[in-house]
Design goal:
Layout lengths: L8 E2 L5 H10 L5 H11 L14 H10 E2 L4 E7 L6 E6 L5 E9 L2 E5 L3 E3 L14 E4 L2 H15 L5 E4 L9 H11 L12 E5 L3 H10 L4 E5 L5 H7 L8 H15 L3 E7 L7 H11 L4 E7 L13 H13 L3 E4 L13 H9 L1
Parallel strand pairs: 1-2, 6-9, 9-10, 10-11, 11-12, 12-13, 13-14
Antiparallel strand pairs: 3-4, 4-5, 5-6, 7-8
Helix pairs in contact: 1-2, 4-5, 6-8, 9-10
Length: about 350
């Protein structure tokens, strides 16, 4: 069962059936679990005292015996350009994580973190500079969305698990998070409105395919050759592009869901016509979408963003080869836009 860093069970990390079992063990009737679940995951109440239809004695026992992941806002930055808000939240053990709220025409989207830090070591990412501290509990992932909903006063309709951390490196928490987030008795966010990113952990990609969830899987590819990918992403030393493409094909075959290739364009590194041609060769046989990302500069790294002309030429060449491609709209560029920057600057100050 889900426990926090102090050995207490985290009640927000439990599914409704698990809550029913837990309360039954306490001698409570099963309908109390439904009430508790609704308070936490639909009404977004953050303390037991506010759960007014629960008996006072039960609320006291819950407060004494169980943790309930509730993040505390430490800092928020708001873009003057597009209204994007980047939140820094403190966890119960004092560690901090980033989450981002973005407004689009099709609804509000939240990008959540899945770990404190990251062990993947991608060269252009600030999230990995301090290494991995720990994985987040499902409740800690969920409460990023809940806290932002309460702080903005607006409904969240889309969720992307693309913040700090490698989601498939925290696989069990990710699956539990998805189960609760899509539960009709909670926020009931459609699985089709959820995207999970991975840098390419092949065994976990295949394992996720077996879940047959109608989510979107986004592969952080960033290079079309093994040699170039290894220079950008250490995980490429474990899994070749051939293995990745096989896993992508398997994922589509099992789920029917189109894969997205995330491709960060780094000036002079992976943005040539030859890179585009090779990428088209990889994407062509798969039912996939390519999302080109003008890389966010990170102070500690030497990489720079490709210029606008080269980005457009790269996109045009992919389209000429029949690839479905978009250029990601840059959100929050003026507020420590790169993943992990806000957390890192805060930690340096502290």
């Amino acid at each position: 069962m889900w426990e926090n860093q102090y050995g207490k069970k985290d009640i927000k990390s439990m599914t409704l059936p698990q809550l029913q079992e837990e309360l039954a063990a306490m001698g409570e009737k099963s309908f109390r679990a439904g009430q508790l679940f609704q308070w936490m995951h639909q009404k977004l109440v953050r303390d037991y005292d506010s759960m007014t239809n629960l008996p006072g004695e039960l609320r006291g026992r819950l407060a004494e015996g169980y943790a309930c992941s509730c993040l505390r806002q430490v800092r928020v930055q708001e873009s003057r350009v597009d209204g994007t808000k980047k939140f820094l939240f403190a966890l119960e053990d004092g560690h901090v994580v980033e989450s981002v709220w973005m407004r689009y025409r099709h609804g509000n989207s939240v990008c959540v973190s899945s770990q404190v830090g990251c062990r993947m070591g991608c060269r252009f990412c600030a999230s990995t500079l301090g290494g991995l501290v720990r994985g987040l509990l499902p409740g800690e992932m969920l409460d990023q969305i809940y806290a932002i909903s309460l702080l903005t006063g607006e409904r969240v309709s889309n969720v992307v698990v693309m913040g700090t951390g490698e989601p498939l490196d925290n696989y069990d928490s990710l699956l539990q998070f998805l189960r609760i987030l899509t539960d009709e008795k909670g926020l009931h966010i459609s699985a089709r409105n959820i995207t999970v990113s991975t840098c390419g952990l092949v065994p976990e990609m295949r394992r996720l395919a077996e879940e047959k969830l109608p989510i979107t899987l986004a592969l952080s590819l960033h290079a079309a050759t093994d040699e170039k990918r290894r220079s950008l992403m250490p995980v490429a030393n474990r899994y070749s592009i051939a293995q990745l493409m096989e896993a992508c094909g398997y994922y589509f075959a099992r789920t029917g869901r189109r894969i997205t290739f995330e491709y960060s364009l780094v000036g002079g590194v992976n943005d040539t016509r030859e890179d585009a041609r090779l990428l088209a060769g990889l994407a062509g046989p798969l039912n996939c979408h390519v999302n080109l990302i003008p890389v966010n500069p990170v102070r500690e790294r030497e990489y720079v963003q490709s210029d606008a002309g080269r980005i457009q030429a790269f996109k045009n060449l992919l389209e000429k080869n029949g690839i479905n491609v978009t250029i990601r709209r840059e959100m929050g560029r003026d507020i420590d836009g790169a993943c992990g920057q806000l957390r890192r600057s805060y930690m340096q100050e502290e």
